[in-house]
């Protein structure tokens, strides 16, 4: 791309190089389009650099440390020390390797990557501002907006990057905090709270509602809650954070309880705010196009990921929930293929979700309540991991697999897993729902023994009324 007053052009402008953006750019280039990808920060977006990847690396390290310190009744004795700075160096290396890989793939497939910011001046023209301040005008035939989202602010606790932090800063800390207060009890709070507790932090979680993980099946949440209690995590339900004061260089967070009407103060070295996300749909010139936003600021799209402006598409977090990298991957491919004239559409039946708690929770499709609300008469089957030979050999017997099916014909509607390696088990479940499989299909599929996936077939058999091992 030439920088200066000269107007240059491309077939597809992709704004944002996160999971959705770089996949869309590569796929469009594979399909013969001239693609320019504009990213103001680092390729890979929040997921690769400040979210999915670094969090899972640190969770893995914390799990190793905790498991070595707490081997259970197996008969192993150990003494464990760890160097958190070294762990973070390893973590940074993992992130860099993946980020460099994305850059390599973009180059290999002919995607022109520009470091800077894009501002739409119309439905076919954008002003590109490079990191050194130089600008250029770019004319495009189609644009894909993939600018992602950012952590929502909590009014009484504005981010300062030092004391009051988002998940981004939490994942880049150089020292393990002594005391951490977490505002919010969604999946980020539970994942990071559990991780820090295993590293030795005294963790306190403040939640306005009566339970954590409000959108997750209650039976699964109960198992995770019990483990959090064993880890010493304090959870203040039905409570509201009201403000903070500084005393001897540390924060004192004031909370009030709806249940007791008492006011409590909690000590904190770090205050992690994790109360949701806001779309990055402002300051990119959408008002100069025909793109419409919903009342929360997310870009409205159809099943082809096309916005209300026929030249412009939107994918990933900026196009609304669920806020999942794998959903953005799929959307990026759809948008690129539609632009290339292929009959693509985001028509997936199943979008799995995973919470890397302890134990893990993974879910796909409808739960019992939502299935009933959708008008289905349902049948369910559950298989506990305490009856699994493989779970017993791993000393990981907490949790279960539950299947939800249409009682009339046995079609699988949802599968929910809480337990060890749930994140690895959910893909078979997701494929089953995507393929419109039935209970009988899962039940008669031979699963190798002894393995955790056997629990999927066992749960299906339970729903069919012919359970063997429970």
Tell me what you see in this structure:
- Its cofactor is FAD.
- It comes from Candidatus Methanoperedens nitratireducens.
- GO terms for molecular function: dihydrolipoyl dehydrogenase (NADH) activity; flavin adenine dinucleotide binding.
- Belongs to the class-I pyridine nucleotide-disulfide oxidoreductase family.
- Its EC number is 1.8.1.4.
- By secondary structure, the chain is an alpha/beta fold.
- The chain has 3 domains: 4-151 and 278-339, FAD/NAD(P)-binding domain (3-Layer(bba) Sandwich), CATH 3.50.50.60; 164-275, FAD/NAD(P)-binding domain, CATH 3.50.50.60; 353-463, 2-Layer Sandwich (Enolase-like, domain 1).
- Helix content is 31%, strand content 27%.
- It is built from 13 helices and 21 strands.
- It has helices at residues 19-30, 45-50, 52-69, 84-108, 167-170, 187-198, 218-230, 325-339, 368-373, 389-394, 422-434, 439-444, 454-463, and strands at residues 4-15, 35-39, 112-120, 125-130, 135-145, 149-151, 164-165, 179-183, 202-206, 234-236, 239-247, 250-257, 263-268, 270-273, 277-279, 312-314, 353-355, 360-365, 378-384, 400-406, 412-419.
- The strands form 5 sheets. It has a 5-stranded mixed barrel.
- Strand 8 (179-183), helix 6 (187-198) and strand 9 form a beta-alpha-beta unit.
- Helix 1 (19-30) packs parallel to helix 8 (325-339), helix 3 (52-69) runs antiparallel to helix 4 and helix 3 (52-69) runs parallel beside helix 6 (187-198).
- The longest helix has 25 residues, at 84-108.
- The N and C termini lie far apart (65 Å).
- The model has no long low-confidence stretch (mean pLDDT 96).
């Amino acid at each position: 791309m030439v920088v200066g007053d000269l107007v240059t052009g491309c077939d597809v402008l992709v704004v944002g190089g996160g999971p959705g953006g770089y996949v869309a750019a590569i796929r469009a280039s594979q399909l013969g389009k001239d693609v320019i990808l504009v990213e103001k920060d680092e390729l890979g977006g929040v997921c690769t650099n400040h979210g999915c990847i670094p969090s899972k690396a640190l969770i893995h390290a914390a799990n190793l440390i905790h498991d070595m310190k707490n081997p259970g009744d197996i008969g192993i004795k150990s003494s464990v020390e760890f160097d958190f700075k070294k762990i973070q160096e390893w973590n940074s290396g993992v992130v860099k390797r993946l980020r460099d890989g994305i850059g390599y793939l973009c180059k290999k497939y002919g995607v022109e990557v520009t470091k800077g910011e894009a501002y739409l001046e119309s439905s076919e023209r954008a002003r590109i501002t490079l990191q050194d301040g130089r600008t250029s005008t770019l004319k495009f035939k189609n644009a894909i907006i993939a600018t992602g989202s950012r952590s929502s602010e909590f009014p009484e606790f504005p981010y300062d990057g030092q004391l009051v932090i988002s998940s981004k800063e939490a994942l880049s800390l150089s020292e393990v905090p002594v005391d951490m207060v977490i505002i919010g009890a969604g999946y980020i709070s539970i994942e990071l709270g559990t991780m820090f507790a295993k590293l030795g932090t005294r963790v306190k979680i403040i939640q306005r509602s009566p339970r954590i993980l409000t959108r997750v099946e209650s039976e699964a949440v109960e198992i995770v809650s019990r483990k959090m209690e064993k880890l010493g995590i304090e959870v203040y339900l039905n409570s509201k954070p009201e403000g903070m004061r500084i005393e001897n260089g540390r924060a004192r967070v004031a909370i009030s309880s709806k249940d007791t009407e008492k006011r409590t103060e909690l000590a904190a070295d770090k205050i992690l705010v994790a109360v949701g996300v806001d779309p990055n749909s402002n300051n990119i010139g959408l008002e100069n196009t025909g793109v419409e936003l919903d009342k929360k600021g997310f870009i409205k799209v159809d099943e082809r990921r096309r916005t209300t402006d026929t030249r412009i598409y939107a994918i990933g977090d900026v196009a609304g929930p669920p806020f999942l990298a794998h959903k953005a991957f799929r959307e990026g491919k759809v948008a690129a293929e539609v632009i290339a004239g292929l009959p693509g559409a985001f028509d997936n039946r199943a979008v799995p979700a995973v919470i890397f708690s302890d134990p893990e929770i993974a879910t796909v499709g409808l739960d019992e309540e939502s299935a009933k609300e959708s008008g289905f008469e349902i049948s369910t089957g559950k298989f506990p991991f305490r009856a699994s030979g493989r779970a017993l050999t791993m000393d990981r017997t907490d949790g279960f697999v539950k299947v939800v099916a249409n009682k009339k014909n046995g079609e699988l509607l949802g599968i929910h897993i809480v337990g060890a390696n749930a994140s690895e088990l959910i893909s078979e479940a997701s494929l089953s729902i995507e393929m419109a499989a039935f209970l009988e299909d899962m039940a008669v599929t031979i699963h190798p023994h002894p393995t955790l996936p056997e629990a999927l077939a066992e749960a299906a058999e339970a729903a069919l009324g012919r359970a063997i091992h429970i």
